[in-house]
Amino acid sequence: MIPTNAFQYLQSLEEINLSLSRVENIETAAFLGLLKVKVIQLDGNKISKISRGSFNGLFNLKTLNLSNNIIQEIEDDSFHGSSAIQYLDVSYNKLTTIPEKLLEPLTMLTMLNISNNLLQSLQGNLCYNFINLQFIMLNNNQLSEVDPCLHLLKVIELSLSNNLLKNLSQSLLPKNVQKLWIAHNNIEELDEDLFANTHSLSILDISGNVLNFIPQNIFEACISLKFLDISENIISIFDPIPFIAYEIY
To answer: How far is it, in rounded angstroms, from Cα 110 to Cα 103?
Structure first.
């Protein structure tokens, strides 16, 4: 357990590493007063819940690593007062849901990793002014649909592999995306205009789905595409036109 005011006499701390320390609980205001802390590593512990106020007052915190715990719940306002966070990693936990306004204070967020959890939905969690958010990892969850606000973001790397997605629409993809992983879902077909606005897309992995056809003009706007993986699908008739016409190789 990390008790309240655990570091009250260490006001000069800039980084705290408590990885692999068997921590099970973080009390409210455990890090209160640490105005210089920029990095907190809590990965590889046995934390099951993040309560309100756990990270209050960490105005300069840039990196928070909570990966590889057994977190099942993160309460609303857990990150209140930590708006400077740029890198948030809660991967490899047991989260089934994210409170709708949990991420709202994190306006400086650059990287968000929620991969390898049990999430079924992210509805509304990305509908905020994340002007700096560039990397989102949502792979290895149970998502059956994409957050409707995703296309508003300036994300350049997006991982949605190993979920339960059945379809994607052009209106859901971020226009600035450069690397997109949607492998090992249940996608049966791709809309012809799916990549109409993704001119910067350079890496695309749609392997391990149930595609049986690639629309003829689907890659017309993908002028930057360098790597394409469509392996492990059920494409019975291979039409080379979508690839030859736009020099994808």
So the answer is: 12
